[in-house]
Amino acid sequence: MRYIMYIGIVLLGVFSQSCAKFLDEKPQLSAATPDKEEDLRALLDFESQINLYYPGLIELGTDDYYLTDVDYGKMQASYQEAYTWDKNMLSIDVGYWRTCYNTIMISNIVLEGVERLQPVKNIDIQGEAMFVRGLAHFYVAQLYCPVFDKDTDSPYGVPIRLTSDFNVPVTRATVHETYQQIIEDIKGAIPFLKDQAAEINRPSKRAAYAALARIYLSMLDYESARYYANQCLKVNADLMDFNAIDPAPAFPFNPKNVEMIYYGSTISGSSALHNGTARIPKPLYDLYDGDDLRKQVYFKSINDTEYAYKGYYSGRSASYFAGFANDELYLIRAECNARLGARAEAVADLNKLLENRIVKGAFEALKPLDAKELLSIILNERRKEMLFRGVRWSDLKRLNLDPDHAVDLFREINVNGEIKRYELPANDPRYIYPIPAEVIIQSNILQNPR
Q1: Which among 188, 237, 182 has a CA at the least distance from the CA of 215?
Q2: I want to staple 424 with a disulfide (CB 3.0 to 4.6 A). Which of 138, 221, 342, 409 is the partner?
Q3: pLDDT tens-digit profile of 276-286?
């Protein structure tokens, strides 16, 4: 398991060549071993491993996109298997697992360095490392764990790595233990973090609040999710007015915008997710009416019947944004308020978001609705707003538990003249990906049932 968990730590010796600060120059390591505070800072500023590692696998199985038959035929086997929800996924790339645990390993090295170098001048280093470790464990859990159930624990959690010691055995935590550690890390980071970091690629209190809101929503803990959404929006509640955004550029958004809380995205997706390949399902495109500015800002027309996505908050063509922004917090708070009976507050948040997304003069404020209709509208707006934002797979898993919002997915592909239909029913075991065979062989941990 040493190779799986810690390959990439050899990068410590080359960070001085590859540490490039987000949209700026970052400090360099003075040595391969982090024995100075500036070395720890440089590790946390290593953007490709700290900010750009979100596992693209979590997007591959969603209904946010489809592939043409020709493009499907060109995909490598692992992408085809993820796209069709293959039961065995024999070709699954260990890289998704490894990259997350490399990030966890870097966090542990930093935390051990902080302990060794006490007292440190910049205590935010400790908070950032705890935040990054908790978030990376959460990403792994979204791929390889079932939905959190407060009443029933499951043995299918993920390995929790809290040390850089290669000799510590690799074992699977339970799901409850997994989420307990994730939450302890991110809550524990808050006292050490600034309200708002100097750069959006560094964690802050706002980022921790936003992460906890997303995590608690995935756990169906609406009280806690609402609380942390509130805490985040208290610091800054700005929204972009899409009326002021030019939809003409290939990628309309600047990542340094007023909504951005924390920059995180993926460079580990695949050619299947690139907007030169991925196509937007027509029923999804048709959810946006003519006055909805997202229809212009998010999509580009390929031809009369095909559309591609261009609304990356990352501002990059091959990097799907999976960080945190204020629009998500409004939607989380609205959903939680609707579920908890605070309908007026839910409607207010929804109106605040939509008035910044609809053509000026065409927006009509929603009035208080009955609970069921209101929740449906909020979830519909979440679907439209959060496209390709790293949350759809998690949303499908949690919403499938409710028959009113469960979705049965399917894809039809023409293979050599034969139409093949692939299905993923709600609550199917295949919503939990198999752990790569290489990991199972080297660690002998429990495999997920498929």
Answers
A1: 182
A2: 409
A3: 999 999 999 99
